[in-house]
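Support request from a user on the community tier.

User writes: "When I paste my structure tokens into the form, the page sometimes reloads and wipes my input. The last time it worked, I copied everything first. Here is what I submitted, just in case something in the input itself triggers the reload:"
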């Protein structure tokens, strides 16, 4: 049962307290910030409550809990979820006050960001397009990056809270949607790098090499990528707890390829990476950590990972 707050002076509200949103909530609470949280998952509710957040039952209640200058962070997954959170039954938008700011953190299509921003603008609500990058560990310690786009006044209003949750923000444009465009470009490359790292480490394993030692070499050489190192270390260690679900890069690479096709950019390598993630989804791996590409690649070859030599 969600405990509904009766306070209306929260500085920040979150709709969505999963891997990323929950880490941001914990960081803000650690700094003494008043935070209201709405999430449909009882586990996430319990985690937010343990961190000292005020639980509310609906997005509308999260908006109503904000003080006059409060900021609403939307940290869900899809554009449809954003629409429901803001404009659906018990949506947040009607409860927001003119001049308040919504910070959109999901990676969604730029056209969807633009449409949401326009709907909010019609209610005199400002919108900051601010996708996240770095994973839950960096979200928790405040070192993650954000790609920030929006009207300068809206960004300025949200800036104190962006500074608290992110060690680095990149101003990428004055129009909502440019944050999404930048994030999709980044995540297309992330998908390419991760799919390539899984294939390379699978090859190393089947050549009789120690995967961990091979990754040591890669990390000090020209094949290094942050996402390859991060995910392959987890896979080599046999870590199964998902920190970044497979379905997320599958979604993001699909959206990025939609943008590439729309503007006529040939992206054969991106298309190949997208096909790898789509195949993983068809194999039932949507909710697995995306580092599971390594054991899955080996399994497709009828092999298993070679054990470390030391």
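"...and here is what came back when it finally went through:"
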């Amino acid at each position: 049962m969600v405990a509904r707050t009766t306070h209306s002076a929260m500085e920040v509200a979150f709709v969505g307290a999963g891997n990323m949103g929950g880490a941001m909530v914990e960081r803000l609470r650690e700094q003494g910030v008043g935070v209201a949280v709405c999430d449909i998952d009882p586990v996430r509710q319990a985690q937010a409550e343990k961190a000292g957040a005020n639980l509310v039952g609906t997005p509308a209640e999260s908006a109503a809990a904000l003080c006059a200058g409060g900021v609403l962070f939307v940290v869900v997954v899809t554009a449809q979820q954003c629409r429901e959170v803001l404009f659906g039954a018990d949506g947040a938008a009607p409860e927001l006050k003119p001049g308040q700011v919504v910070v959109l953190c999901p990676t969604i299509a730029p056209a969807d960001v633009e449409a949401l921003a326009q709907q909010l603008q019609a209610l005199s609500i400002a919108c900051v397009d601010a996708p996240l990058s770095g994973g839950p560990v960096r979200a928790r310690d405040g070192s993650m990056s954000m790609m920030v786009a929006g009207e300068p006044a809206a960004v300025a209003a949200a800036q104190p809270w962006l500074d608290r949750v992110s060690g680095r923000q990149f101003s990428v444009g004055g129009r909502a949607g440019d944050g999404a465009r930048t994030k999709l470009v980044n995540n297309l490359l992330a998908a390419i790098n991760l799919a390539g790292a899984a294939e390379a480490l699978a090859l190393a394993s089947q050549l009789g090499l120690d995967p961990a030692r091979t990754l040591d070499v890669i990390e000090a050489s020209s094949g290094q990528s942050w996402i390859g190192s991060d995910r392959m270390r987890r896979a080599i260690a046999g870590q199964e707890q998902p920190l970044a679900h497979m379905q997320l890069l599958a979604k993001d690479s699909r959206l990025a390829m939609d943008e590439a096709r729309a503007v006529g950019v040939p992206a054969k390598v991106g298309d190949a990476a997208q096909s790898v993630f789509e195949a993983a989804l068809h194999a039932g791996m949507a909710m697995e950590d995306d580092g599971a590409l390594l054991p899955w690649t080996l399994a497709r070859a009828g092999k298993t990972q070679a054990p470390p030599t030391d």
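Agent notes: The reload is a front-end session timeout and is unrelated to the input. The beta strands are 10-15, 35-38, 54-55, 66-74, 101-104, 126-129, 132-133, 145-149, 168-173. Residues 234 and 291 are 7 Å apart (CA to CA). Escalated to web team.
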